[in-house]
Amino acid sequence: MERLFGEMGASGRAFLASAGVPATDVTLRRRVDMRYAGQGFEVPIELPADARGWDALLDAFSRTYRRLFGRTIDGMAVEAVTWRLGVSGP
Q: Do residues 3 and 10 touch, judged by C-beta distance below 8 A?
């Protein structure tokens, strides 16, 4: 997970640097669309900058799913479908 976000972040930072945006002004926004296996829709999960590893991702998914639907599904596999990293500057 960190390698994937790291690669996307490096590409985004390089693009913004080529446009003259100082590295100190770059903001990253990490999101993952997740679902329980077999579901036909995904739930967008916003990851805090300090969230690291699959356990942190599952925890964020469970909190978000419970907030949206009032429950979680114990024992059901969870899938990360789409990984997104927004890289922006002023």
A: no
